[in-house]
From TrEMBL:
DNA-binding among keywords: no
The entry's keywords: Membrane, Signal
Record's signal peptide: 1-29
Pfam family for this entry, one: OmpA
Full protein name: OmpA family protein
Superkingdom in the source lineage: Bacteria
CDD domains the UniProt entry points to: OmpA_C-like
Amino acid sequence: MSFYSRAARMLVAGLVLCFGMAGATASFADENAVVTGKIEWGVWIDDDGCMHWWADGGLEGYMVPRRNPKTGKPVCLKKNTCLVENTDTLFATDSHKLTASGRDRLRKFFSSAGAFGYAIYGHTDSRASDEYNMALSKRRAHSVAEVARSVGASVERELGFGERQPIASNQTVAGMAKNRRVEIICYRW
């Protein structure tokens, strides 16, 4: 009797599956179906210059390393610091709005640099609070990134470091001037 009961359950399950698939096929074939989602995709470059494929449909995305199909090794770009610009030449004091000459200089740079992608890092001296300097350096990096995007350059990251990565002493006027900078990293083949 258990054999027949198991066979009956399998038969019912098979029928449910068949009718379910038929209904699903009919709904997929509906000519009035509305697409409600969009999948965004692209290539992301990590801080080391290695490329990753990514896709995101809105609920959950995924990322996989881009690998050379012949060798299986990750595809990585060469990176170098291609411009360090003192922010005194790009911005007024305590501002993230680019000067006209600073905007022109950056436009020319991004139009001619020829890199695959860019990372833009903003830095400040230590005259204001850490919180204020972090926000100002982020806004300045974003302003530079917007110029890059305006000429078709791909900006992979824009970060503000505030006063946290000084390259000179903040105890002198000359040292503070060196620390107020925007660094642009170029990713190249």
